[in-house]
Every structure is written in structure tokens, then in C-alpha cells.
């Protein structure tokens, strides 16, 4: 059983805004320290940022409007905690305690991800999809059910009828769809809205990539301040993650679909 949501789901809109603000921080500093939380819905967007580099409120507002539409913005920026910043003073160290499990993507998960992307290419609006064995459930806003039924005759389509979704109907929050983004992976923290020093990001990505490479589950843990994980310098794991994020187009693009 696996659920997938698309980039127009309100939770993913929140993840995308958070990712875009991390991209902005990296455009200003080579290795910023930043953590972003976003809550949005019903014409309002609340953003709290803990950061080592100042983000102008005007730029933050333009990013939020570009991704989420014309929402009113409540933006709060505070300095990254001094203890956390000092933890990184002499090089990359794990920014938090965490447990992580990278899992191989299954054929069913690949199939649902393919279906989700194909629907979103045609209907770029709020959508959520479930595959349970051979049972396929498609909930797609702003799309006539008969058109979806023609594309996927065996699917259960919009069980409550055609609908309009998005942040005017539902609320969204960062990291609320980790199951959709990580499939069977397990994490001790949020995947989105954080810089590469955070183990929530780098160790999660590393564990996922290693699982795909080896074909085996990867279980890891770390304590705040650790400078090695999985027998490797943490700095190496950060660079592996950095290259992966670059390969998908940055933190905002990474937030669209996550790891799956």
C-alpha cells in the first residue's frame, strides 16, 4: 500500500516554499544554516525561519506568491541557535539526533509515482493517489472524472465526485507528507526546509541512495555532533547529498516529489 501526493497539494506547496527559501539562503552563502517551517491555507501563509543569513521579507513574499498564489504573509525570522551554529564551527557535524532507514523503491511505488506524474502533467492541480495491491484510487481536483476514468479504466476516481482543491480548501504544512516522499523509509526528522548540515536531509538522502545502490535496507542513526555516520566522515555524506540536490534542480524542485 502506498500513497502519493502531487506538487499542488497544500502540504507540498508548503514544502516547496520552504525549499525555495533554502535555495535563496544557498544563493547568499555557500553553506548557510537554515531551518524553515511553513503553514498555509485559506488566504494566509505563516513562515518561521531560523537562519544564519538574512532573507529579505520582500523576496520571501515574492517566493510565497509565486508558488502559492496571492496569500497574505506572516513572516518571522530569527537567528539560528548559537549552540547549533557552534556545532558546525570546525566542519560539518550532525545537526541533530536521528534514526534513518533507507528502503529500495518497489515496482508498485515506481508505478504509482509514474501515474501521479502523468496525471499532474495533464492536470497541474491538487491531487492524491493510492495504490493498494491492484486497487488504484485517484483523487484529482479540477479534472473531470470521466476523463480520468478514460485514462485509467480500472481506477476508483474522485469517490465523492469532482472537486476543487488547493490551499483555499485545505491547509498545508511542511513535512506532513513524508510517507508520500519517502515510501517505506523512516526518518527521525523533517526532510524539507533545512540546510545540508542537518542530518534530517543529508543522512536521509544518503540512506536512500545507498539502498537503491545495494538493493538492501539501510539503517543508520546519529547523535548531535557526530562527525562520522556509517563509517564515513559526515562531510562526505553532506557532499553526496549536495550533489543529489543539485542533480534534481535544487531544494525547491526536490520538495515537489521528494525521494520517490
Provide the spatial order of strands within the biggest beta sheet: 1-6-7-8
Mean pLDDT: 95
Sequence of secondary-structure elements: EHEEHEHEHEEHEEHEHEEEHH
Low-confidence stretches: none
Q: How many β-strand stretches?
A: 13
Q: Count helical runs.
A: 9
Largest sheet: 4 strands, mixed
- Shape descriptor: flat
Rg on CA atoms, Å: 19 Å
Distance between the termini: 14 Å
Please estimate the helix content.
25-40%
Beta-strand portion reads 15-25%
User: How does the helix and strand content classify structurally?
Assistant: alpha+beta
Map the helices and strands:
Layout: E1 2-5, H1 10-28, E2 34-41, E3 44-51, H2 57-68, E4 72-79, H3 82-87, E5 98-102, H4 107-122, E6 127-132, E7 135-140, H5 145-151, E8 156-157, E9 172-173, H6 178-182, E10 186-187, H7 199-214, E11 218-222, E12 228-229, E13 232-233, H8 234-248, H9 251-257
Parallel strand pairs: 3-4, 7-8
Antiparallel strand pairs: 1-6, 2-3, 2-9, 5-10, 5-11, 6-7, 12-13
Helix pairs in contact: 1-2, 1-9, 7-8
Keywords:
260 residues, alpha+beta, four-stranded mixed sheet, 13 strands
How would you characterize the overall build of this protein?
With 260 residues, this protein is an alpha+beta fold. Helix content is 40%, strand content 23%. It is built from 9 helices and 13 strands. The chain has helices at 10-28, 57-68, 82-87, 107-122, 145-151, 178-182, 199-214, 234-248, 251-257; strands at residues 2-5, 34-41, 44-51, 72-79, 98-102, 127-132, 135-140, 156-157, 172-173, 186-187, 218-222, 228-229, 232-233. The strands form 4 sheets. It has a 4-stranded mixed β-sheet. Strands 4-3-2-9 form a 4-stranded mixed β-sheet, covered by helices on one side. A 3-stranded antiparallel β-sheet has the order 10-5-11, covered by helices on one side. Strand 7, helix 5 and strand 8 (156-157) form a beta-alpha-beta unit. The longest helix is centred in the N-terminal third of the chain and has 19 residues, at 10-28. The two termini are 14 Å apart. The mean pLDDT is 95.
